[in-house]
Amino acid sequence: MKEAELIEKSKAGDVEAFSQLIRNYENKIFSLAHHVCAGMPSDAEDVYQETFLSAFKNIKGFKNRSNLGTWLYRIAANLCWVRFRKKKREPVVSFLERRRPDEEGGPLEFKDWFPNPEEASRKKELQEAVAKALADLPADYRLVLTLRDIEGLSAEETAKILKLSVPAVKSRLHRGRMFLRERFELEFKEKVS
Fold it and tell me: Rounded to whole angstroms, how far apart are CA atoms 14 and 68?
């Protein structure tokens, strides 16, 4: 069934059609939520679920002015903004300080796919550095960076989702990349010294 048909059936209350739409977009929304809410995994899970709940409640109002993916990204981005505003005044625990729920006091570990321990160590170090840098990135830059560089959306699609101009998207993307670059240069320079 084509997406337009699924949307119309969903608007008429067809739960199975809406479930198919969710299956078509769940990986993208999951990825967006986890990258944008870096360092806050429970918030990422909530944003992921709330995006589809909100979409289900509001599907009748979807007017096909943009594609469904853009509409869902906009819902997820708005939910992320709401969470960031609420958490702005709360103390934040960095991603690297979080512990695995199944290990008391144990550090968060990434699954190791390399057979060589030295390569695995380098991979883990890089993953931790990327996660920390993303978590430290201001939310407005993180959203743009996630949509453009991780999700692969165009500047125009990103602008539409975030209700920004294309130049604003490009500016935030550039600033976000520069922020990450400076973080990595500083971190790796300290390790070499």
Answer: 17
Q: What is the mean pLDDT of each run of 10 residues along the chain (193 residues)?
A: 89 90 90 77 84 91 87 89 70 47 52 56 76 83 89 91 93 92 78 60
End-to-end CA distance of the chain: 59
Q: Which residues contact 177 (CB under 8 A, 6 or more apart)?
A: 145, 149
Q: Which helix (H) or strand (E) holds 117?
A: helix 117-136
CA 39 – CA 136 distance, rounded (Å): 9
Q: Comparing C-alpha atoms, which of 31, 33, 26 is closest to residue 68? A: 26
Q: What is the pTM of this model?
A: 0.59
The upper half-sphere exposure of residue 191, i.e. CA atoms within 13 Å in the direction of its Cβ, equals 10
Do the beta carbons of residue 161 and residue 77 sit within 8 Å?
yes
Burial of 43 (0-12, 13-18, 19+ CB in 10 A): buried
Amino acid 94: pLDDT: 47
Cα separation, 110 vs 105, in Å, equals 16
Phi, psi of 186 (to 5 degrees): -65, -45
Topology of domain 1-92, CATH: Rna Polymerase Sigma Factor; Chain: A (1.10.1740)
Q: What residue ranges do the domains of the chain occupy?
A: 1-92
